[in-house]
Amino acid sequence: MEMENSEKDISLREDKALVEALFSKESLMQFNENQQQSNDSFFEQQQASILNAIGQQKARIIIFGKYGKIAVAASILAIIATSYLYIQASKQSTATVEYVKIEEIPSEEIENYVNANELIAEIDWSTEIDEAAEIFDETTININSNKDTNKTE
Amino acid sequence: MQNDQTWVIEFQQSTQKEGPFTQLLKRHQQRVYYQIKRMLNNHMDADDVAQQVWIKVWNKLDGFKMESEFSTWLFRIAYNETLNFIQKQQKETDFNQTAEKIDYEDAATGSDHPKSTQIQIALDHAVKQLPEKQRFVFMLRYFEALNYEKIAAITGTTVGGAKANYHQAIKKMEQILKQD
For a Cys-Cys bond, which of A5, B4, B131, B161 suits B157, CB 3.0-4.6 Å? Predict the structure, then answer.
């Protein structure tokens, strides 16, 4: 293990030496120092702002957790309602009146229809006749009774 | 003295996560920030990316299975976030040679680099010219003194690949120096 570590150290030193041959060690150190220049309180401020951002994120999640379910349920209901209304509307618009040619109707059906309506017509006529007969009877009775009273006078 | 692993376990098992998280943050905050800053060469950008890294750590730490060291996992997140930031920046701004030159001169004379000498200017310039992966590997090897196994795990490559990246970075910097 120790040997492995020392080998790694040698390889690191060799790798570093390759760069230091191009640029001086001092300039590399200076480069690193330049990147590390920040005021003393920077890391405390950064820490506070990271924790603050995380706190805000948590708050957003909590709000969503509280009202999110209601919002999701409401939107699902709205989707169902609008799709139902849409389907109904499209059904109405697509409903067309079917025109049937009289030649296409089977004669049996026509006969049945006529027979059924004839029966209704017969019933209607007979009631009309009966009513008319009743009126006629009443007027003739009245006329006869008038004649009788005139005779006795 | 508790190590990273115990803080991670405490974070994963506790409902009061702020405590162990703050401990991990304190232990690694500076190294993460400096690595990102070396990559981006800009304080504000490095601060933003570092914050994103730590927020990601908070969100994903429950799922961390400790198959690698916490620091390796953390640097892998930092690596991905930094590369994402650079790619986004490259999309937003057209990186032409003129802008590069102005930036390079700014870096040499700006307040971020008060003690710049010719050789440091050349170093800054050469580092900036490196492809992102090579730059990241170079920084991890030279400044963080990480072994290649760890670098390979962070950058998602093999040990051989990490070594090749480091040596290619040096070769490229040498070429840039010769050009200058």
Answer: B161
